[in-house]
Amino acid sequence: MPYALVALDGRAAPAPSYWPNCPVIGIGDGVDAAPDVVDVVVASDTELEIVTAAIERNPIASMTLVGLLRHNGRVSTEDALLAESLAYSTLQHGAEFQSWLASRPSRRMPPDPAPSVIVDRVHDELHITLNRPQRRNAYSSGLRDALCEALYLVADDPGIEKAILRGAGVCFSAGGDLDEFGEGSDAGRAHASRLTRSAGAMLHALRDRVQARLHGACIGAGIELPAFVNRVIARKDAFFRLPEVSMGLVPGAGGTASILPRIGRRRLAYMALTGERVDAATALAWGLVDEIEAG
């Protein structure tokens, strides 16, 4: 069995002498009061079925996810990003991701017709807009590099007091560009690229000067990146998902470093294992966003 079950009865539990390598599911109420060994909490048979089915479909990605979250809860953001990149790069060459990849038709999209990121300086503010609306602002390598270039402007100019990060079109970002998935054949190079061109690391460093304004779909990187900044404002239509485990992966744009301190290990594990949608009101209650925009 690729998971362990623990009944939550409200009694204090001793610190575990051994941490199972598989996900530990707590059954009962009290996501914040569960014993430390518990990775994810379910309150009903329906939730239990959803979580266990997800784990059974991708047991290696699920095991890697909970181990990564246990680790990242104890280390700095920089070390968490390093660990996430290593885990992601490893899983890219695993059987679960390769099976998911083989189930998708291969296609190559034409170049973007316009700049993938638009930058506009207004007095002491820099407006940064993800600009692939025809692709729902999918997080491609080109968009990543352009976003890093925009963030370098903020880092290098102390006269920019605030940067505002938005997405053009119907949503902030629908996550990683799936048509680029599987292109890298060298895990080491992929890891090096992820660390040296990390928009997440830059957003973390600039978190006091960047505000994210979210709407529509915020999937994968579409919430992993904004979660790094100190002020995340969402419209009522915003929703959030982490689908990577269903692909045989873990979040790879920094989500196990950025979302973890906002909502905690167990809520993050539930989001990532199930891939279920979280609406704006729930995100606000959890602390995933800081404000819901009026109107």
Architecture overview:
- This protein is an alpha/beta fold and 295 residues long.
- The protein has twelve helices and twelve strands.
- The protein has helices at residues 45-57, 59-72, 77-91, 95-102, 141-156, 187-196, 199-205, 221-224, 255-258, 260-263, 265-274, 280-286, and strands at residues 4-7, 24-27, 40-42, 117-122, 125-130, 162-167, 210-214, 217-219, 231-234, 239-241, 278-279, 291-292.
- It has a six-stranded mixed β-sheet with strand order 4-5-6-7-9-12, with helices on one face.
- Strand 4 and strand 5 form a beta hairpin.
- The protein is globular, with a radius of gyration of 19 Å.
- The mean pLDDT is 93.
Quickly list its features.
12 strands, six-stranded mixed sheet, three-stranded parallel sheet, single chain, alpha/beta, 2-enoyl-CoA Hydratase, Chain A, domain 1
Short précis:
By secondary structure, this protein is an alpha/beta fold. It contains twelve helices and twelve strands.
The string of secondary-structure elements, in order, is EEEHHHHEEHEHHEEHEEHHHEHE
Mean pLDDT: 93
Major sheet details: 6 strands, mixed
Top-tier CATH class: Alpha Beta
Count of helical stretches: 12
